[in-house]
Amino acid sequence: MSSTHPVPPHWAANALIDADGYRAKYRRSIEDSDAFWREEAQRIDWITSFDTVQDASFDERDFGIAWFTGGTLNMAANCLDRHLAERGSQVAILWEPDDPQTDARRITYAQLHRDVCRFANLLKARGVTKGDRVTIYLPMVPEAAVAMLACARIGAVHSVVFAGFSPEALAGRIEDCASDIVITADEGLRGGKRVPLKANVDAALEKASASTVIMLRHTGADVPMVEGRDIDWAEAVAGVPDDCPAEEMDAEDPLFILYTSGSTGKPKGVLHTTGGYAVWTSMTHEYVFDYQPNADGSMPVYWCAADVGWVTGHSYVVYGPLLNGATQVMFEGVPNFPDQSRFWQIVDKYDVEIFYAAPTALRALMREGDGYVTATSRKSLRLLGTVGEPINPEAWNWYYNVIGDGRCPIVDTWWQTETGGAMITPLPGATPLKPGSATLPMFGVQPALVDNDGKELEGAAEGALVIKASWPGQMRTVYGDHERFFQTYFSTFPGSYFTGDGARRDEDGYYWITGRIDDVINVSGHRMGTAEVESALVAHPSVAEAAVVGMPHEVKGQGIYAYVTPNAGVDSDGSLRAELVQWVRKEIGPIATPDVLQFAPALPKTRSGKIMRRILRKIAEGDVANLGDTSTLADPEVVEHLVAGRPAS
Ligand code: 6R9
C-alpha cells in the first residue's frame, strides 16, 4: 500500500482552509446546508437576490432540481465587469501558441471585457437573442473564451464542440440543439499540424443547417467563404460598438449545453444553468486550487491544460478562474511539441504556480524519461492537479517527485460533465494525500457506495458511487429530453444520482475511483460511449454487427477494443481493418480510433440475444482464463473462436 503524504506545514498555515476548517465547513455544508450556501452565494454579484436556496428532489414523484430561485445575475458580468475597477489592467489570459516561435498574447480583463462586448453586439446584429443556441467549434485561442462569454452576456446558450470532432459529430450536435449559428476558425494548430476547422464546418452544414458562420482568421489559410452565410470575425467586429449591457438572467436560465457520451444512444446535451453553476465553479476553483492573492497582492499564475471543448475547460479555464479574477495560461498546443519539455518550458516562461492536467498526458511524458523535465526549473510550481481518469500510483509518484520535486501537493479531482465541478478532491491545506485516491468530498457533496440492490454500504467498502443530494453545480436536464435525464441518472438507484463510476472507500473514509461501471470507456480522459463506436461501425456497408469494449492501455488509461462481424461474403483479410479504423475516425473523430479491431464470425450472445460484454471485456483484457460462467450462451463455441482469433497487440 502506498504511503500517506501529510499536509506540508506551510500549506496548513497559509491555505484558505486547513484540516479543522475542512471538517467544520463540511459538516455545516450538510447539516446547515441552506445557511452554508446562502453565504457561499455571496461570492456572486446578484442583480436581484434569490428567495430560495434550493428546491431539489431526486424522487420520481416530485423530481426537479433548482438552486437560488428568484435570483437574477449575468455570468459574463460576474467574470468581467465586476473586476474592471480593481483589475482592469491585470492579465486575465496569457496565451501561448502551438509554435513557440509565434507571438504569445497577453489579454487584460479590460481587453477581454471589450472583446466580449463587441462580439456580443455582433451576435445580436446577426439575430441571436436570449435562449438561442450557438455552436462554438474553435481551437484553444482566447476567442473561444470571448465567444462563450459573449453568449453568456446576451443570454444565448453556447454549445462548444471539441475541435477534434469530425464533421459528422459536429453536424449531429448542431442539429440536436437546433443551433442556427456556428463560430469557428479557418484552421486550428496542434503540434504543428493544421486542423481544417472551416472545411469541417462546411461539411457539417451539408447535413445540418445554420444561417450564419462566423470565422476567426487564425492561420490565414485560404478558405472558401459562402456568400451571405459566412462572415469574417475581425471584419465583422470592426466598428461594432463595445458597449453591450449584460442581460439579466434568472438563476435557472440555461448557460450552456455540452454534449457527452453515455452508455446508450447518441451523446446527450448536458445542460447547466447560471446561478448554481456560477457559485459552484467559483467556490470549487477557489478552495481546490487555494486560489488567493500572493503576499505581494498579485494573483498566482494558474494553468489548466484542458481544452475548452471539454467540461474541464468550461469550469476551470473559462468560468471558475475568471469569476475569481485569476491570471491564467491558455495553451493552444500539445505536451510534446516541439519536444517533450514543452509543458515545463511554459511553466518556467510564465512562472506558473498552479498546474492542472490529465493523467494521460503525464503518463505519455513519463515514458520519455526524466531528462525532458529536469532540463527545466519548475521552481515556480506550488500546486499540481489532475482530472479526467484515475491516476495510477506510479504516475502520481512521478508527478509528485519529478515534476513537483517532492514539494507540491497534488489535488486529484474527481468529477464529471454532469457535476459541473470538483466533487471528491483533496484541499491542499487540509487533506493528507494518498497516491491514487481522490480523497474526500467537497463541501455540500454527499457521496455513498451502494451494492447491486441499491443498499447503502457502510465503512470501508466497494460499490457503485452515488450522490445522495443535490449540489448547486449539478446538471439540470438532458437538452430536449428530460425523461432521459431522469432515466439515465436517477432510476438505477432511486433517490440518488448515479455517477456511472465504481469506487472503494477505505478505513479513513477516502474514496478511490475504480472507473466506469457502465458502457462508457475513458480514453485519455475523454469519455466515449461504446454504443457510439458500435453504431459508427455498423454504419459501414461491410459490417453486420459490432461490439466495443474498453481494454487496459498504458498511456491512454483505456483503449478501444472493437469486435466486428463482417457481412456474409465480405473479405476481412484485405484492407478492411484499416478502412474501418479510418471510418470510425471520420464518423466520430480521432479520439474514437479503435486500438484493436478483431474480426469475429459471431459475437457471444445469451439465448435472448443480448451480447455478453463481460466476456468480450475479459478477452480484450487478455484474461481468457477467467471468462466466468458461459453456460447461458446460446453458442459457447463462439467464445473459443474469439479467444483463438485475438490479435497480438
Ligand atoms: C471532469 C471530467 C467523467 C468521468 C468520471 C470518471 C472519470 C474524472 C477522475 C475520474 C478517477 C478522477 N474521472 N476525474 N476518475 N479519478 N480524478 O473528466 O468529466 O469528461 O464527463 O468524465 O471521468 O470515470 O465519471 P467527464
Automatic annotation (TrEMBL):
Question: Which N-terminal stretch is annotated as signal sequence?
Answer: none
Name of one Pfam family that matches: AMP-binding
User: Which residue ranges does the record assign to the Acetyl-coenzyme A synthetase N-terminal domain?
Assistant: 22-79
- Where on this chain does ATP bind? 388-390, 412-417, 501, 516, 527
Matching entries from PROSITE patterns are given as: AMP_BINDING (PS00455)
* UniProt keyword annotations, A-Z: Acetylation, ATP-binding, Ligase, Magnesium, Metal-binding, Nucleotide-binding
Reported function: Catalyzes the conversion of acetate into acetyl-CoA (AcCoA), an essential intermediate at the junction of anabolic and catabolic pathways. AcsA undergoes a two-step reaction. In the first half reaction, AcsA combines acetate with ATP to form acetyl-adenylate (AcAMP) intermediate. In the second half reaction, it can then transfer the acetyl group from AcAMP to the sulfhydryl group of CoA, forming the product AcCoA.
Q: What is this protein called?
A: Acetyl-coenzyme A synthetase
The species this protein belongs to is Alteripontixanthobacter maritimus
